[in-house]
Amino acid sequence: GQNIDQPTEMTATEGAIVQINCTYQTSGFNGLFWYQQHAGEAPTFLSYNVLDGLEEKGRFSSFLSRSKGYSYLLLKELQMKDSASYLCAVREGGKLIFGQGTELSVKP
Amino acid sequence: KAGVTQTPRYLIKTRGQQVTLSCSPISGHRSVSWYQQTPGQGLQFLFEYFSETQRNKGNFPGRFSGRQFSNSRSEMNVSTLELGDSALYLCASSLDWGGGTEAFFGQGTRLTVV
């Protein structure tokens, strides 16, 4: 079956680093996406990994291990505006299968 | 360049009615996918269109249908609306079909069925 797991909630302090994990089991794999979604808004694309390893983009980095079915999103130098839901999604063929999202709260 | 455009942004409909939502992808993108987002179920895949053909379909009843035009714009239709169809409907635009490219979402259409 298809299963994507990520923690429901996380809390971190402004200026700190936080890692959001995602594990997946899908019948197909064409890449893994991370999206950020603020309440009431559409998801915003953050990163895309199709090969193993780390992709860095400013304060955000994403890691993928296909053999372990594992990814993480690393957010550095946290800002209050980073408080949002972070969605992990696996692309299977032409569709994205989403996890339930991780609600991140950044505290001062 | 312009992003993904969805219209309308908000809709209120009555049970039993039907509704049509529109999505214009990023210029040059040929794949459009539709998703339903609800607090209880999260984001769920509805269907994907590429070159005017439905390539993938999720587990939704036949009341949900869609199509894509030659300019890659897509429409989604829901007939005989039910209260449970109240949701944020999102479309995603990609260059190509079948994986390997980034996917960008529009702002969504928030549908309320009363």
Q: Short summary of the structure?
A:
The complex is a heterodimer of chains A (108) and B (114). Chain A has 108 residues and is mostly beta strands.
Produce the secondary structure layout.
The complex is a heterodimer of chains A (108) and B (114).
Chain A: E1 3-5, E2 9-13, E3 18-25, E4 32-37, E5 44-49, E6 53-57, E7 60-65, E8 70-75, E9 84-92, E10 95-98, E11 102-107
Parallel strand pairs in A: 2-11
Antiparallel strand pairs in A: 1-3, 3-8, 4-5, 4-9, 6-7, 7-8, 9-10, 9-11
Chain B: E1 5-7, E2 10-13, E3 19-24, E4 31-38, E5 42-50, E6 53-57, E7 64-68, E8 74-78, E9 87-94, E10 103-105, E11 109-113
Parallel strand pairs in B: 2-11
Antiparallel strand pairs in B: 1-3, 3-8, 4-5, 4-9, 5-6, 7-8, 9-10, 9-11
Describe the structure.
The complex is a heterodimer of chains A (108) and B (114). Chain A is mainly β. Chain A has no helices and 11 strands. In chain A, strands 2, 4, 5, 9, 10 and 11 form a 6-stranded mixed β-sheet that branches. In chain A, strands 1-3-8-7-6 form a 5-stranded antiparallel β-sheet, with no helix packed on it. In chain A, strand 9 and strand 10 form a beta hairpin. The mean pLDDT of chain A is 94. Helix content of chain B is 0%, strand content 54%. Chain B has no helices and 11 strands. In chain B, strands 2, 4, 5, 6, 9, 10 and 11 form a 7-stranded mixed β-sheet that branches. Chain B has a 4-stranded antiparallel β-sheet with strand order 1-3-8-7, with no helix packed on it. The chains are: A mainly beta (108), B mainly beta (114). Chain A binds chain B through residues 30-31, 33, 35, 41-45, 48, 50, 87, 89, 91-101, and chain B through 31, 33, 35, 42-45, 48, 50, 55-56, 58, 88, 90, 92, 97-100, 102-108.
Strand percentage of chain A lies at over 45%
Provide mean pLDDT of chain A, rounded.
94
Class per helix and strand makeup of chain A: mainly beta
Helix content of chain A: under 10%
Distance between the termini of chain A: 41 Å
